[in-house]
């Protein structure tokens, strides 16, 4: 987290992914263009917030693996975005 702060980025730490909806509500959408969020917090937000992740405008939400490794959430979400953007992918 200190590395992000050293680069001038805001960084927020959660003790539990269940805290994510409360933090999300406090972030001002007009202040952040990109939000990086770990997979566990992303999954909680997706379950509990009807308008998460934003489908238009800002912020862009990037899902990153937690320290213990990836569960593939970010890759699955990106695949879904691409499929919606180009229509059904044949393969």
Looking at the structure, what is the overall shape? globular
Number of domains: 1
Query: What distance lies between the first and last C-alpha atoms, to the nearest angstrom?
Result: 40 Å
Number of strands: 2
Helical content band: 25-40%
The ordered string of helix (H) and strand (E) elements is HHEHEH
Show unreliable segments: none
Main beta sheet: 2 strands, parallel
Whole-number mean pLDDT: 83
**Total DSSP helices:** 4
Give the amount of beta strand, in percent. Answer: 5-15%
Task: Explain how this protein is built.
This protein has 91 residues and is an alpha+beta fold. The chain has one domain (16-86). The chain contains 4 helices and 2 strands. It has helices at residues 2-6, 20-26, 39-48, 73-86; strands at 34-38, 60-64. A two-stranded parallel sheet has the order 1-2. The protein is globular. The protein starts with a helix and ends in a 5-residue tail after the last helix. The model has no long low-confidence stretch (mean pLDDT 83).
């Amino acid at each position: 987290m200190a590395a992000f702060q050293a680069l001038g980025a805001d960084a927020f730490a959660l003790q539990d992914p269940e805290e994510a909806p409360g933090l999300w509500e406090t972030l001002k959408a007009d202040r952040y263009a990109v939000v990086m969020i770990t997979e566990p917090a992303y999954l909680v937000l997706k379950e509990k917030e009807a308008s998460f992740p934003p489908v238009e405008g800002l912020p862009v939400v990037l899902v990153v693996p937690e320290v213990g490794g990836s569960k593939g959430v970010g890759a699955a979400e990106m695949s879904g975005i691409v499929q919606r953007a180009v229509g059904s992918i044949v393969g």
